[in-house]
């Protein structure tokens, strides 16, 4: 019939990323270690930006409960994405191809959502870098330019340093940057523990703060979920994993979540 012919033509005209050759990549070179560094660096970096605020709103006990539940949920989600990656008929797999296979109408929505999320995270990192590094320069140097100019110069320098990493053809090529980032984070943690004054008399609460309410606690739940965000990278790891298997991908997911916790 005419309607059937129109449906067939429409289907043939759809953009099939999975079957296309638009992305020519080298042979996979990723290992469990390189993929682990990528996911761990992503999670730990985002978690450091917001978890302190989350704990201040709900106390230690509820904070750790939310932290564990969010970690378990994130790990299970990574496991499901690993299953989808292993079921892909081609080595190239992305959220676009998964959405194309499951719900073609949503493929552009999914891609736009992930792009907005990644841009937001990247901007937050640039802002934190601009504030922190410009402040350090101002403390160290008496001849530093004014705050606005100094911050602008730092932001441009960070962009220039980060740009080459963004153009890496595979996620395993970022392993050196990831390792350096993990070492820097470890240094900050050790420094904070070593320099903390445990006899300062600062008040810390295990239960809910007196000012806590249902809405205030609910408002920080996304903070704990966001602390384990790395799902945009797991499919890149699956694509670049040498001799990929469900077990290898699940080991990467579990080890990354454990490191973040």
UniProtKB/TrEMBL annotation:
Question: Does Membrane appear among the keywords?
Answer: yes
Q: Where in the cell is it found?
A: Vacuole membrane
Q: Which Pfam families match?
A: Aa_trans
Q: Could you confirm whether the keyword Membrane appears in this record?
A: yes
Q: Which GO terms describe its molecular function?
A: L-arginine transmembrane transporter activity; L-glutamate transmembrane transporter activity; L-histidine transmembrane transporter activity; L-lysine transmembrane transporter activity; L-serine transmembrane transporter activity; L-tyrosine transmembrane transporter activity
Q: Which keywords does the record carry?
A: Amino-acid transport, Membrane, Transmembrane, Transmembrane helix, Transport, Vacuole
Report membrane topology.
Multi-pass membrane protein
Q: For this UniProt entry, which segments traverse the membrane?
A: 33-55, 61-84, 105-128, 148-168, 175-196, 216-238
Question: Where do the Amino acid transporter transmembrane domain residues begin and end?
Answer: 30-248
- GO cellular component terms, A-Z: vacuolar membrane
Q: Which family does it belong to?
A: Belongs to the amino acid/polyamine transporter 2 family.
User: Can you name this protein?
Assistant: Amino acid transporter transmembrane domain-containing protein
Species name: Perkinsus olseni (Perkinsus atlanticus)
């Amino acid at each position: 019939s005419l309607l059937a012919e129109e449906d067939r033509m429409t289907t043939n005209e759809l953009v099939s990323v999975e079957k296309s050759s638009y992305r020519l990549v080298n042979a996979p070179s990723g290992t469990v270690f390189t993929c682990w560094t990528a996911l761990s660096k992503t999670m730990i970096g985002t978690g450091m930006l917001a978890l302190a605020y989350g704990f201040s709103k709900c106390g230690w006990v509820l904070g750790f409960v939310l932290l564990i539940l969010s970690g378990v949920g994130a790990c299970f989600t990574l496991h499901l994405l690993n299953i989808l990656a292993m079921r892909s008929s081609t080595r190239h797999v992305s959220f676009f191809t998964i959405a194309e296979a499951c719900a073609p109408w949503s493929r552009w929505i999914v891609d736009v959502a992930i792009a907005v999320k990644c841009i937001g995270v990247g901007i937050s990192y640039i802002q934190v870098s601009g504030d922190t590094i410009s402040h350090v320069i101002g403390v160290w140097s008496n001849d530093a330019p004014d705050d606005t100019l100094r911050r602008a110069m730092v932001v441009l320098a960070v962009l220039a340093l980060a740009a080459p990493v963004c153009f890496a053809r595979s996620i395993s090529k970022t392993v050196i940057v990831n390792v350096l980032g993990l070492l820097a984070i470890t240094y900050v943690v050790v420094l904070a523990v070593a320099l903390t004054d445990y006899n300062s008399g600062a008040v810390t609460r295990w239960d809910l703060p007196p000012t806590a309410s249902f809405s205030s606690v609910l408002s920080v739940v996304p903070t704990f979920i966001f602390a384990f965000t790395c799902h945009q990278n797991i499919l890149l790891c699956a694509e670049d994993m040498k001799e990929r298997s469900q077990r290898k991908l699940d080991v990467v997911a579990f080890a990354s979540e454990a490191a973040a916790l």
